[in-house]
Write a structure and sequence with these properties.
The complex is a heterodimer of chains A (about 90) and B (about 260). In chain A, helix 2 packs antiparallel against helix 3. Chain A is mainly alpha-helical and about 90 residues long. Chain A is extended and about 50 Å long. Chain A has three helices and no strands. In chain A, about 10% of the residues are buried. Among the domains of chain A are: about 30 residues; about 35 residues. Chain A starts with 7 loop residues before the first helix and ends in a 25-residue tail after the last helix. Chain B has about 260 residues and is of the alpha/beta class. In chain B, about 45% of the residues lie in helices and about 15% in strands. A seven-stranded parallel sheet of chain B has the order 1-2-3-4-5-6-7. In chain B, helix 7 packs across helix 8. The radius of gyration of chain B is 17 Å and the shape is globular. Classes of the chains: A mainly alpha (about 90), B alpha/beta (about 260). At the A-B interface, helix 1 and helix 3 of A face helix 4, helix 5 and helix 7 of B.
């Protein structure tokens, strides 16, 4: 059972300014990428796909965005050649 | 906490933390031999408890070779062979943080070896799940490994670093779910509280990332503050940040807290 202690107005009062700042940061990031020369890689393709989740009438947007950036396969890879994660699944490119 | 300064212990005690629980993890670089792990396990079971005790903070730990160093199966076998020598140390709660990093076959093999070690020695298990794009797949693979060993009881395992796309599968399988809090890039305080409000507060705990990257040892107390701002009761906050972790770790006979 979902426990929602705050009204929508209270959620907005507590989190709107923070979300607004993040939204502007996101726009500035996209502008920065698009001003720069060269090609985009698989990360931006996945990023743009994940962005579309924000506009959907879906009560689990955070989960959908995470899934859009995730490796959807189920078999182990042959070997780990790097340690770091890139934030998006290269296979989606 | 091997990756933190003593001031962090002071801050934790000042904020009301009653114990610190430190898993074996990556050193920020790959250790070159089993001897490096021997020294590390001594640090976790001898030196760090003393450093924390100076400020009245009980220190507990978990032992393993972490997933980032699990591609080398021979080294992993050597490290696993020395772990039993440390399992009777008074601050050792179990095997962890084991798990996966890039979801490779060798990482899977070493994970299975750790699970077998924990089962043979009746240890609690703390599991690390991969970050970012590898988390969903890795969490599925980890649950498969744990469920395929009939000796493993889900209520004695905590699967850490859950996020919105993995928490449901962890809880549905009967495991504890851990939410490691980060100031950026991963699970924030606000998202952790969202998950508690959606999925409930049973078999869930929160912990502060205290590693080599950007992290905040007081993330749990700060999340408690944010819960208060949202209107959560003192009892609900206490259950999440104190009662729940104490309930899980009390399954180890070595977990004892001084009376408040």
């Amino acid at each position: 059972m979902i426990q929602q202690l705050m009204t929508r107005q209270q959620v907005l009062d507590l989190y709107f300014m923070e979300a607004r700042a993040k939204l502007i940061d996101l726009g500035a990031f996209l502008d920065r990428v698009e001003r720069a020369s060269g090609d985009e890689d698989f990360r931006m393709k996945a990023f743009r796909a994940a962005l579309t989740e924000l506009a959907k009438a879906n009560p689990h947007k955070a989960k959908s965005i995470l899934m859009a950036l995730s490796d959807p396969t189920t078999e182990p890879i042959p070997a780990a050649t790097i340690k770091a994660a890139s934030g998006a699944w290269p296979g989606s490119g | 906490m091997v990756s933190r300064v003593t001031d962090d212990y002071v801050d934790m005690v000042t904020a009301g933390c009653l114990a610190v629980c430190e898993p074996a993890f990556w050193a920020g670089f790959d250790r070159s031999s089993v001897h490096g792990f021997y020294d590390y396990f001594c640090q976790l079971t001898e030196h760090e408890p003393k450093r924390a005790a100076k400020f009245g903070l009980p220190h507990f730990t978990w032992l393993c070779i972490n997933p980032k160093e699990s591609e080398d199966v021979k080294l992993a076998e050597e490290v696993l062979a020395i772990i039993p020598k440390f399992l009777d140390r008074p601050n050792v709660l179990g095997i962890g943080e084991i798990g996966l990093n890039k979801n490779s076959r060798n990482e899977m093999k070493v994970l299975e070896m750790h699970v077998d070690l924990a089962a043979r020695h009746e240890q609690l298990i703390l599991v690390h799940t991969p970050h970012l794009e590898d988390k969903w797949k890795g969490t599925r693979l980890i649950i498969d490994v744990l469920q395929s060993d009939r000796r493993i009881k889900p209520e004695r395992c905590i699967i850490d670093h859950v996020e919105e796309h993995t928490i449901q599968m962890v809880l549905d399988a009967g495991f504890w779910a851990g939410m490691t809090l980060y100031p950026e890039s991963k699970c924030t305080s606000a998202r952790a509280i969202d998950m508690v409000e959606i999925y409930g507060n049973q078999r869930i705990w929160m912990n502060s990332a205290c590693d080599w990257g950007v992290s905040v040892p007081l993330a749990v107390p700060r999340t408690a503050l944010e819960m208060r701002r949202r209107g959560h009761s003192a009892e609900a906050i206490d259950k999440l940040i104190y009662q729940n972790p104490a309930r899980f770790m009390s399954q180890s006979p070595r977990f004892k807290l001084p009376k408040a």
